[in-house]
Amino acid sequence: MKKEIANFEINGRPYEVIVTPNMTLSELLRDSLDLTGTKHACEVGQCGSCTVLVEGKPTLSCSTLAIAVRDKAILTIEGLSQGRPLHPLQQAFIDSGGIQCGFCTPGAIMMAKALLDENPNPTRQEIKEGLGGNLCRCTGYVKIIDAVLMAAETMRKGGK
Amino acid sequence: MKGGGMKPFEYFEANTVKEATQLLSNYGEKAQILAGGIDLIPRIRKGDIKTEYVVNIQKIPDLDHIGPDGNQGLKFGAMVKLHSLENLKAIQEKYPIFYEAIHQITSVQAKYMGTAVGNLCVATPASDVATALYALGAELKIAGVKGERTEPIEKFYLDYLRTSLKRGEMVTGVSLPKPSPGAGTSFLNLARTRSDIAKMCVAVALTVQDGICREVRIAMGAAAPTLFRATKAEGALTGQKASLQAIAAAAKTASEETRPITDLRSTAEYRKEMANVLVRRALEKALEKAKA
Known about the structure:
Radius of gyration of chain A: 16 Å
Structural class of chain B: alpha+beta
Distance between the termini of chain A: 44 Å
Largest sheet of chain B: 5 strands, antiparallel
Order of helices and strands of chain A: EEHEEEHHHH
Strand order of the largest sheet of chain B: 4-5-10-6-7
Number of strands of chain B: 14
CATH architecture of the largest domain in chain A: Roll
Largest interface: A-B, 37 and 31 residues
Shape of chain B: globular
Number of helices of chain A: 5
Low-confidence stretches of chain A: none
Shape of chain A: globular
Structural class of chain A: alpha+beta
CATH class of the largest domain in chain B: Alpha Beta
Oligomer: heterodimer
Number of domains of chain B: 3
Distance between the termini of chain B: 54 Å
CATH topology of the largest domain in chain A: Ubiquitin-like (UB roll)
Low-confidence stretches of chain B: none
Helix content of chain B: 25-40%
CATH architecture of the largest domain in chain B: 2-Layer Sandwich
Order of helices and strands of chain B: EHEHEEEHHHHHHEEHEEEEEEEHHH
CATH superfamily of the largest domain in chain A: Beta-grasp domain
Number of domains of chain A: 2
Strand content of chain B: 15-25%
CATH class of the largest domain in chain A: Alpha Beta
Mean pLDDT of chain A: 96
Largest sheet of chain A: 5 strands, mixed
Radius of gyration of chain B: 19 Å
């Protein structure tokens, strides 16, 4: 199998990585670049834990070939804030208790970011539907929805 | 859990349909098309399909086109995402059952990544999207090394996970005919949870003229090895006075036409019972809409 050097733009930073065609985006992030915020969980595209944004669109990195997203802008949980202050979504997940074991959190936050980018003032129902592809096995859904509502409000007031 | 486990394969990015079909022709069953990837990548990882060559069609221009088909219908290309179709006004208004079939998919990520054509080509009989397109009389545009052909969706499915695509062929798009004026349509499915694959799905289209059922289409998913139309039930209802009794009789006939299996989601007996219930409810709903 052919190895090749491919260019990636992740969290605004250029990377040059040796990839093989059968490497997924989640493997590239975690194993090659140590960006372990993105989680491997179900690995069949059903849980949403591996969600990242590719050109702003919510994408399951476990079901995406790394080589197919060369030269595209990829945003992971690590790119949301540069240290402190945290991104309003990260802060709201902490403040509302939207984190339990934390495993689904990066994926849920990235999906919520895509949702708020498209709809800055969502209803509870719209958040439920928007996060329909993100499973939380601690079943902390109520507080996750609270967190997204809280973050939406902060962001509408100009918080970044 | 460590990711991976995907066996090595060779990877191509096709720039044109011609290039893609040539690659598919060269490699035959060892090649798979990569469109959205939400079905293909997990299946390669699980080892369900042996893949030596992956042909990425994402960069072929025009496959992401949606527009009128020149015949008052609508056509869309193989790379059009479910999310784009869901949000298209023309689909919400003219083909509401197609919209509903997409809208009830819970994973937003899957809708951003996945394509309707990819969904059709998986050829699972449990596809909600394919069931809706079956009732709407969709036509598939197929390209091969020797040229293009069109195929009604009803001739596309040969068996469980098997389509009529020949070596070197790919589906490049779908055309939806202009909806029959005054037709009532409805889509219903039954699943263990909102996000699970359907135990059974039904999509119907019904035209009523002067109180008589004229055009009747009953498409059934997860009720046999492939999608199918309950043609005996359709025949029984066509020409009948549109009534709850006639609908109940047709639903019973449709149930008799099913050949369901027992699996972890349902028993065959349950599916057969539910076919009767779902078809009856779907036809009742379509009748209400047809009158309106």
